[in-house]
C-alpha cells in the first residue's frame, strides 16, 4: 500500500510539474509575442515620425510655389489689362519682366526641392518594406535623413552637425539605418535635451578598410553609470510614465548587430552627453 501510495503521489507530482512547465512555456511564448509586437510597433512609430517630418518639409517649398504662382498670376492680369488698354509704359514692362523672372526662379527652385523630398519619401517607404540590401551613397543618404528632422528642431536651439570627409557607397539595409538614426535622434530630443534650451548632435561618418564607422554624439544631460549600463536592455527607460516603453535602444542594438552585422558601443556620464559608435560591413551580400 505504501509503495502504491508513493507511486500515485509521484505520478501526481509529475503531472503537476508537467502542467506547470506547460503553463510557463505558454507564458514565455505569450511574452515573446507581446515583445515582438511592441518592437514592431516601435519600428512603425519611428517610420511614421520620419515620414511625417518629410511631409512637413514638403509643405514649405509647395507653399512658396503657390504664393509665387498666385503673385505672378495677379501681376500678369494687371500687365495684360494695361497692355490691351494701351496704357503700358516701359517701366511697367521692365517691372513685369523682373517679376516674371523672380517668380519663375522661385517656383522652379522650390519644385526641385519638393521633388527631392518626394524622392526621399518614396525611398523611405521602399526601405521600410525592403528586406534585402541595396547599394547607395551613405553620406548623401544620412544628409537626406537629417533633413527630415528640421521641423522638430527648428523651433528649438538644437544644431545637427554631419561630418563626412568623403562619401562612399555601401550595400546594406537602408531601412535598418533609418530605424537606428531615427531612434538615436529622438532619444536625444526626448532625453538629452528635454530640459535644456540648446544642444548639438554630431554625426561623423568614416571608412576603415571594409567597415563603415558611424559615430553619434550629443552634448546633452547624459546619464548615470548605472543607467548607461542598462541603456541597451529591453524595456529600460527613465521616462516610463511619459509614454516610453524602453525598447528604442534595444531595437537600435538588434538592428545594428543582427541586420547590419555590425558592432555597437555606448558610453555616457552626467552632464557629458552620450556617445554611440556603430561599425558595420560596407557590403552585405543579398541572401539567395
Write the layout of secondary structure elements.
Blueprint: H1 2-84, H2 90-129, E1 134-137, H3 138-147, H4 150-153, E2 157-164, E3 169-172, H5 174-192, E4 198-208, E5 211-218, H6 225-229, H7 248-259, E6 263-268, E7 274-281
Parallel strand pairs: 2-4
Antiparallel strand pairs: 1-3, 4-5, 5-7, 6-7
Helix pairs in contact: 1-2, 1-5, 2-5, 5-7
Catalytic activity: ATP + protein L-histidine = ADP + protein N-phospho-L-histidine
GO molecular function: phosphorelay sensor kinase activity
Keywords: Coiled coil
Structure described in brief:
Residues 53-284 form the Histidine kinase domain. This protein is α+β, with helices and mostly antiparallel strands.
Quick one: how many beta strands?
A: 7
- Quaternary state of the chains: single chain
* Overall pLDDT level: 80
Largest sheet: 5 strands, mixed
Overall geometric form: elongated
Gyration radius, rounded: 28 Å
| CATH architecture tag of the largest domain | 2-Layer Sandwich
What portion of the residues fall into strands of 2 or more residues?
15-25%
The count of domains is: 2
CATH T-level fold name of the largest domain: Heat Shock Protein 90
Query: What would you give as the CATH superfamily of the largest domain?
Result: Histidine kinase-like ATPase, C-terminal domain
C-alpha termini separation: 65 Å
Number of H- or I-type helical stretches:
7
Order of helices and strands: HHEHHEEHEEHHEE
CATH class of the largest domain: Alpha Beta
Ranges where pLDDT stays below 50 over 5 or more residues in a row are: none
Strand-pairing-aware structural class? alpha+beta
Sheet with the most strands: spatial strand order? 2-4-5-7-6
Helix content: 55-70%
Amino acid at each position: 500500500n505504501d509503495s502504491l501510495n508513493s507511486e500515485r503521489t509521484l505520478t501526481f507530482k509529475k503531472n503537476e510539474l508537467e502542467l506547470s512547465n506547460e503553463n510557463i512555456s505558454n507564458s514565455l511564448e505569450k511574452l515573446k509575442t507581446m515583445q515582438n509586437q511592441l518592437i514592431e510597433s516601435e519600428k512603425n512609430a519611428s517610420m511614421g515620425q520620419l515620414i511625417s517630418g518629410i511631409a512637413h518639409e514638403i509643405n514649405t517649398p509647395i507653399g512658396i510655389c503657390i504664393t509665387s504662382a498666385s503673385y505672378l498670376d495677379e501681376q500678369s492680369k494687371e500687365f495684360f489689362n494695361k497692355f490691351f488698354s494701351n496704357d503700358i509704359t516701359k517701366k511697367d514692362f521692365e517691372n513685369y519682366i523682373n517679376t516674371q523672372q523672380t517668380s519663375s526662379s522661385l517656383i522652379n527652385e522650390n519644385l526641385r526641392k519638393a521633388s527631392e523630398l518626394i524622392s526621399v519619401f518614396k525611398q523611405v517607404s521602399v526601405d521600410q518594406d525592403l528586406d534585402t540590401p541595396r547599394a547607395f551613397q551613405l553620406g548623401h543618404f544620412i544628409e537626406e535623413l537629417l533633413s527630415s528632422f528640421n521641423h522638430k528642431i527648428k523651433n528649438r536651439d538644437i544644431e545637427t552637425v554631419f561630418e563626412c570627409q568623403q562619401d562612399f557607397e555601401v550595400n546594406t539595409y537602408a531601412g535598418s539605418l533609418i530605424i537606428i538614426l531615427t531612434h538615436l535622434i529622438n532619444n536625444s530630443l526626448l532625453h538629452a535635451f528635454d530640459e535644456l534650451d540648446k544642444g548639438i548632435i554630431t554625426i561623423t561618418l568614416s571608412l576603415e578598410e571594409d567597415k563603415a564607422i558611424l559615430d553619434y554624439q550629443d552634448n546633452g544631460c547624459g546619464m548615470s553609470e548605472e543607467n548607461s549600463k542598462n541603456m541597451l536592455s529591453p524595456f529600460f527607460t527613465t521616462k516610463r510614465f511619459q509614454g516610453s516603453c524602453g525598447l528604442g535602444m534595444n531595437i537600435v542594438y538588434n538592428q545594428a548587430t543582427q541586420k547590419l552585422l555590425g558592432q555597437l558601443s555606448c558610453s555616457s556620464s552626467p552632464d557629458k552627453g552620450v556617445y554611440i559608435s556603430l561599425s558595420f560591413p560596407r557590403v552585405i551580400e543579398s541572401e539567395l
